[in-house]
Amino acid sequence: MSKKAVVLLSGGLDSATVLAIANSQGYTCHALSFHYGQRHDGEIKCSQKVAKSLGTESHVVTTIDLSTWGGSALTGDIDVPKDGCSDGIPVTYVPARNTIFLSHALGYAEAACVQKQSLIRNKNLHHLVPDVILSRSCS
User: 19 pLDDT exceeds 50?
Assistant: First the structure.
């Protein structure tokens, strides 16, 4: 039986690195990306390029609407800052986005018969992204 991995693929450096590592370790990778109500499609375009470049068995782009409750410059009517970072939680933080993505990835992994689930996260973001703290490894 081949080893399978579901990789949450945003198109950014962290998720691309995870995909590259999983590929190098012999996993058959299934990428999962989201249209989540963001006001741009840059993430999706980048995730598609990364999936094609690094190689995946499949790349699912699914839709969930996180703009319903707003609270973020990425999904609501809040201006995206153009002049750098501010202190505290950034206005681009989407409430519970990572937790919601993780729950979808776990469901996809179960349906794809992935035997082991692991969470790899950027430990340097925990002070900026509250739902990274709430997420935990399932391995």
Answer: yes
The full set of domain ranges for the chain reads 4-134
Residue-wise burial string across 89-112, b where 16 or more C-beta atoms lie within 10 A, e elsewhere: eeebbbebbbebbbebbeebbeeb
Residue 32, classed as helix, strand or coil, is strand
- Give the pLDDT band of residue 136 (cuts 50, 70, 90): very low
Amino acid at 90: P
Query: Which tokens belong to 83?
Result: 């002049």
Read off the pTM.
0.81
Token pair of 139 as six digits? 């391995």
| Whole-number Å distance between alpha carbons of 21 and 31 | 13
Task: Answer for the pair 65, 39: CB distance below 8 angstroms, yes or no.
Answer: no
pLDDT tens digit sequence for 109-125: 999 888 766 666 666 55
Q: What is the per-residue pLDDT for 53?
A: 97
Question: CA-to-CA distance for 70 and 97, rounded, in angstroms?
Answer: 12
Candidate CATH numbers 3.40.250.10, 3.40.50.300, 3.40.50.620, 3.60.20.30; the one for domain 4-134: 3.40.50.620
